[in-house]
Design brief:
Elements lengths: L14 E10 L3 E10 L2 E11 L5 H16 L1 E13 L5 E6 L3 H12 L4 E7 L5 H11 L3 E4 L9 H12 L5 E4 L3 H13 L4 E3 L13 H15 L5 H6 L6 E3 H14 L10 E6 L4 E6 L8 H4 L10 E6 L8 H8 L1 H6 L10 H13 L8 H22 L2 E2 L14 E2 L8 E5 L1 H4 L3 H12 L12 E4 L5 H8 L3 H13 L5
Parallel strand pairs: 1-4, 4-10, 5-6, 5-7, 7-8, 8-9, 11-16, 16-17
Antiparallel strand pairs: 1-2, 2-3, 11-12, 12-13, 14-15
Helix pairs in contact: 4-5, 8-16, 10-12, 10-13, 13-15, 16-17
Length: 493
Amino acid sequence: MPLLKPQKSMENSALIANLLVYDVGSTYTKASAFRLEGGKLDFLGRGQSPTTLQDVMIGVGLARRHVEADCGVIVAADAKAYATCSAAGGLRMVALGYMPRVTAKAAKEVAMTAGARVMEVVSFDEPLEYREEVLREIRPDIILLAGGTDGGDIESVLENARIIAKIRSKAKVIIACNRDAQADAAKIFTEHGIDWVRVPNIMPTIHELNVKPAREAIHAEFIKQITRAKGLDQLQAILADRTVMPTPGAVLLASELLARGTHEQEGIGGLLLIDLGGATTDIHSALPELEMLKPEERGLIISNEKQFSYRTVEGNLGMRVSAAGIVDAVGPLAILRAMPEGSPEVAPEEISTYAQYLEENTEAIPGDLREKAIDHALAVCAIQVALRRHAGHFAQEADPVMGVAAGTPVGRDLRLVKYVMAVGGIFAYADAAQAKAILKSAFADPGISLLPEEPAFFCDKDYILYAMGALSSHYPDAALSYMNENMISRGVL
C-alpha cells in the first residue's frame, strides 16, 4: 500500500513534526505525523508497517521510520505521541439486566467507545438455566451487571450475581445496577473469588443514562488485555497521556466532535459515518439537535432514536476477515447486481469462492478488473446491510399496543442528515470517482429505511480520523479546525 504524503507543500523544506499518533491495527500499524503550531494542525504524512504482535514496538518503530524516510518528516525530540489500538479485538461482554430492551440499550451505550463487544444481553425474564448457559458458552471477559433504577428492583441483580458466583466466572464484573443492591452483589462476588468493580448505576432513573463510569471501567480492562501483547507496555510508556485508546472509540469521538463542535467553534450538525474495515462494518451517527431534548421528551431509555450519538457494529461484515459474511447476508446474486456497470461477467459461484479466498488471504489486493468489481460490490452490500440495521424505518403495519400507525417513522431517523463520511482502506486507496460510486450505490434504494435523503459524501483519504479522535481530548479546537478545513471543505466527492 502506498504511503501518504502531505497534501500541501510547506515553505520550509524540513517537515518537523511535534505530534505523532500511532494506530496498532490487526494487520497494519500506522504512524501519522502532525505539526501543531499556534493552535493549527498540519498533517505531514503517514507511514505504516505490518503489525508485529510478537513485539508491537517493532511495527511501531518501522511505521515511524517510514513516515520519516518516505515522507521527509523530521520528528522533533520533544514530540508528543498518542496511540489507538484494535489489534486485540474487543473484550467479549455479556450484559445481565432486568428489562431486555433497556438493558440492551444501556449495554450498547456503555460498550460504544470502551473497547468491548456486546455478545449477548440477558434479561430477568429468561430462565435461570438459560442465563447460566449463556455465561458458560460465551465465557465473557466482561459481565455488565445492570438492573433496576436507584431504589427499584433488587432481586434480579442478586439472582444474577448468584449465577455468576455459581459458575465461578473468570470475567471482570462491572457492578452498575441499582445502588441499593450493589453492596450485597459485591459481597457475593468476594465470597466466591469473583473479580469485580463498582460504578454508579448506568440507569439511575427511567429518563437518564449514566454510562461514563462503566465505560471507564471497561476501558481499564481493555488496556490490561492489550498490554499482554508484548511491547504494549513500552508503547504506553512513550505516550503523552499513557493511554492507548480503542480505535473504534477514537473514530466515534472524532465524529462526535465534528458534529457537535466546541465552545469556540460550531460543528457541522448531523453526521453519518461509515467505517468499512476488514473484519467489521461500523456505522456511527451523531445528531446534535437531540441533545436539546428535555428528559420528558426523550422518554424511557428503551431505544436509540433520541440519543445524540449511536454506533452499531456488524461483526460479520468486512472486506477481508469477514468477506464471506457479506455473501451470507445478501447472497451471491445481490453481489452480482451491485457490481459496477461494464464489469466482466462473473458466475454466482465465483463470488463465494473469491470471498473465501479473501478470508484466507487478508492482505490480498484486487489484481484485475474482475476482482476490483467484486470488491466494489462487496463494499456496497456491506454498507447497505449495515445502514439498514442502524437506521429506523417506516412501519409497515399498525401496532395498536405501541400506538404506531402504518407508515409512521420508527427508530433512528437520519433523513435530514446532510453529511456522510466514509472511512476504510477501500476509500483511502480508491480514487474519488470510485469512492463516490460505492457510496451512491449503497444509498440508491433506501426502501423503507430512514436514510439521509440528499447527503454530501466525504472520504477520510488520509486515513487519519482515528488520529483526530485521539487528539480530540487534548486539542479539540485544532482537531475540529483540521477536519473542517481538510475533510469537509476540501474533501467532498
